[in-house]
Write a structure and sequence with these properties.
170 residues; alpha+beta; L,D-transpeptidase catalytic domain-like
Length: 170
């Protein structure tokens, strides 16, 4: 089997095991009511109320400082969004779509005559890496997305229902 197929099979097995675990899993994993990303700290927090359920290291876009203003700027957005959909067949190990651009982002881009871009995701590592694993763990490498380890991505996937708010801070 190719590496890509093996990664997808592994993803399906992890999610199937999680579903089969049912009550046992539910007692161990709490559901987050919001996600906070602190870009300057390279941290993603899963929160329930004011309590941090998980804190995870992240990688950002290749040009991480400042908010995303236009398509192709390699920046990760800043602002309030929602997790709107899931993709188990992504180029990366699982992916959750962030609702970027929001109306403020669209108005700003329109005023500048540019496209705001889109398809901002929280995702795991590439299914077909082109660099050594430690590169993805130590560098900002995405086109503007928020990347985490594959094991952290499983936790995010299982602990965030659709429409969970996400706040991306500088």
């Amino acid at each position: 089997m190719t590496r890509s197929i093996l990664m997808k099979v592994r993803c399906v097995l992890v999610l199937a095991c999680a579903c089969l675990a049912g009550n046992a899993l539910a007692s161990n994993l709490e559901v987050a009511d919001r996600v906070v990303v602190r870009k300057s700290e390279r941290k993603l927090l899963l929160l329930r109320g004011e309590r941090v359920l998980r804190s995870m290291d992240i990688a950002l876009g290749l040009s991480p400082k400042g908010a995303k203003y236009r398509e192709g700027d390699f920046r990760t957005p800043e602002g309030s969004y929602r997790l709107t959909s899931r993709n188990a067949n992504s180029e990366y190990y699982l992916a959750l779509k962030v609702s970027y651009p929001n109306p403020v982002d669209e108005q700003r881009a329109a005023a500048e005559g540019v496209s705001p871009g889109g398809l901002i995701m929280i995702h795991g590592q590439p299914n077909r890496p082109s660099k050594p694993l430690d590169y993805y763990q130590k560098n900002d490498w995405t086109n503007g997305c928020i990347a985490v380890s594959n094991s952290d991505m499983v936790d995010i996937w299982l602990m965030t229902p659709d429409d969970t708010p996400i706040h991306i801070l500088p």
